[in-house]
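Progress report, Aim 2. The chain analyzed during this reporting quarter is listed below.
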Amino acid sequence: MKWCKLLILASVMVSLLHSPEPAQALSQLKVHGKTAIVVIDDFGNNTGGTKEVMELPFKVTVAVMPFMPNTVNDAKRAHAAGHDVIVHMPMEALSGKKHWLGPGAITTDLSDTEIRTRVHAAIDNVPYAVGMNNHMGSKATVDPRVMRNVLQACKERGFFFLDSHTNYRSIVAKVAREVKVPCFVNHIFLDDVHTKAAIQKQFMLMRQHLNQHDVCVAIGHVGNAGKITASVLKEQMEKMSKEQITFKKITELLDPVNKTMVNM
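Predicted structure tokens for the chain:
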């Protein structure tokens, strides 16, 4: 597990060094000033921080795992609160057992047809979803065949894809350009370390990123440390808003044509 954590850390470091903007042409973006996008993963199990994130005074993007006990309820609550909803699609990692991923996961041994079938089923299971990102996926996101099928299914449903960037060798953005699916890339994980001080430090990295770029995408989580994440998130959103940083939902980065498409 130690080498897996190092791989994720390397992914974050490379992301910050190369500062990838969304994979589609930057002319697609609708940005005024500095824009922060916060995505919160792992909804669907009614775990720690769920209520607190839902009630944030700022809009976020809520990533809901399919086929979980609270999948439908969490998606409906997030939509009612004005947040974006996306499918948090379980995908095969380089380590760990496949059954840890949960039901309906995308693994590299699946056929093309089965991959597409599972993506469509997951989308059908998450009400109000407008896009998708990967849960884990350090193995799946470096497999061109797998990601081509995932992204083609997303295209059929008018979805964008957010690469969580759990592997710095990810080929998602490249394949998305080929398939012509709007694709965004995560820049920073907010809560790999479950302490208030560590999460606050990640928000400082967001500020550093925004000193050089117009957009920063960051991912946090509900779960064991979800309440800590939600508390720091609210605090930092209030502070950063006074610093002329605007927090937006991810769909607000799409141009009107694509925004219409993803809300179909």
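Confidence is low (pLDDT under 50) at residues 1-28, 258-264. The beta strands are 34-43, 61-64, 84-91, 129-136, 160-163, 183-185, 188-189, 215-221, 245-248. These observations will guide the mutagenesis work planned for the next reporting period.
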